[in-house]
Specification:
The chain is an alpha/beta fold. The chain contains 18 helices and twelve strands. The chain has a six-stranded parallel β-sheet, sandwiched between helices. Helix 12 links the parallel strand 8 and strand 9. The two termini are 36 Å apart.
Length: 404
């Protein structure tokens, strides 16, 4: 009877909420629950184990995800794996279209996914200005949408999107604080003159990381010599490091605030080594990558802030899934959750990160997500519960849960 009562309460909760797309959540099933007569209730109680199994998941739903699945970088693969785990935790299906992550490209991707009859779409916005178009497209189609890795910085666009019935919300990090803190950490290591590399100007993340770095530099007394933007290939990364060394003999630190260049740190390390500067110039970056442990052990790399590449898309997907199946964390407006950056300065932790964050398994398994992040199965899960859960997230936390 206890399980039956829980099921009936869940059904009642779902009835009061709105699902997106073609998914009707469990509203119809809840309405048809045979609880009108004592005999029906007794019959249900007698078969409660079977009923619990057959009513275990919401009605099937489909989430569309524009992502470059051809990219072989372990981080990019892990992002997809974490989104997939969140979608499958509630019995959903994830479908993908390849994207270049530009605003125009993403709008085309979203149009294609809508034509494929998805119930929700998760993506990483290239700019705030694209969001009203996305919202209009999704509203016309009755499709929910969510974001990952990005806040909305334009006040007018944010107000409009937060008022939308179709915007589920999403995760982002405190990029200003992160960029400020990593500059101050490098200042504590003795860096006084810093060369910086960042994603293209105009990108939401790039702009606010610039702002945070400037604040941290002012507080720590660090001079930012130059910032180079939009490096996407290793040859350009090498040229940039070589030009920094030639132009700024006083440079004692290099910070990658962000880049879409694969193998960024190995490329920088080789360039420094070729110039006889490896270990002499302190190196840091935002966003973990798989080669960091080697250079941390050698003493030629010094600090990274990251880990958000896995937890952010996972929780962003959970936010969207909860909205699509009719059990959002926040019932009036989007669910916005700040996911943490982790600091990495130790080669041992870097090895654990590679094993437990970049392997085939998500940082929370589908079963763990179902138990701790999907409100359909537990009505006590809300934004406050998610904030509490994420306060314990760390490399050590993932290792403890997933070590064999």
């Amino acid at each position: 009877m206890k399980k039956l009562l829980a099921m009936m309460l869940t059904g009642a909760m779902v009835l009061g909420l709105t699902a997106c797309g073609n998914s009707a959540s469990t509203q119809d099933a809840a309405a048809e629950t045979p609880a009108e007569t004592e005999a029906a209730v007794e019959e249900e109680a007698a078969t409660e184990e079977v009923a619990a199994d057959t009513a275990a998941d919401p009605e099937k739903f489909v989430i569309g995800f524009p992502w470059d699945t051809a990219n072989t970088d372990p981080t990019w693969i892990s992002i997809y794996n974490n989104v997939e785990a969140a979608v499958e935790s509630a019995g959903g299906e994830l479908i993908n279209v390849t994207t270049d992550n530009t605003a125009d490209g993403l709008i085309d991707n979203i149009s294609e996914l809508i034509s494929r009859d998805v119930d929700g779409i998760l993506f990483m916005p290239a700019s705030d200005s694209m969001l009203p178009t996305v919202d209009s497209m999704c509203a016309d189609a009755g499709v929910c949408w969510g974001t990952m890795f990005r806040d909305i910085n334009d006040a007018d666009i944010k107000e409009a999107m937060y008022a939308s019935d179709w915007y589920a919300g999403g995760c982002h990090e405190d990029d200003i604080a992160c960029a400020s803190n990593i500059v101050k950490s490098m200042g504590d290591m003795g860096v006084t003159n810093l060369g910086v590399i960042n994603i293209a100007k105009g990108d939401t993340s790039s702009d606010i990381r610039d702002k945070g770095a400037a604040e941290g530099a002012k507080e720590a007394g660090v001079n930012i010599l130059n910032t180079t933007y939009d490096i996407t290939v290793t040859t350009d990364m090498t040229k940039t490091i070589e030009s920094y060394i030639a132009a700024y003999p006083e440079m004692d630190g290099i910070l990658v605030l962000g880049t879409y260049c694969g193998a960024a740190i190995p490329t920088i390390e080789k360039a420094l080594s070729d110039q006889g500067k490896a270990g002499e110039i302190k190196v840091g970056r935002i966003d973990f990558e798989s080669e960091l442990g080697k250079y941390l052990e050698e003493g030629t790399f010094h600090v990274s802030y990251g880990g958000q590449q896995q937890i952010d898309p996972l929780v962003s997907a959970a936010i969207l899934v909860n909205k699509v199946i009719g059990t959002p964390y926040v019932e009036d407006g989007p669910s916005i959750i700040i996911t943490p950056y982790l600091e990495l300065t130790d080669a041992g932790e870097a090895a654990q990160f590679n094993e437990y964050f970049l392997g085939d398994e998500a940082v929370y398994t589908a079963e763990e997500i179902k138990d701790s992040m999907i409100r359909y199965y537990d009505s006590s899960i809300d934004k406050a519960a998610m904030d509490k859960l994420l306060s314990t997230f760390s490399i050590a936390d993932v290792v403890a849960r997933h070590s064999k």
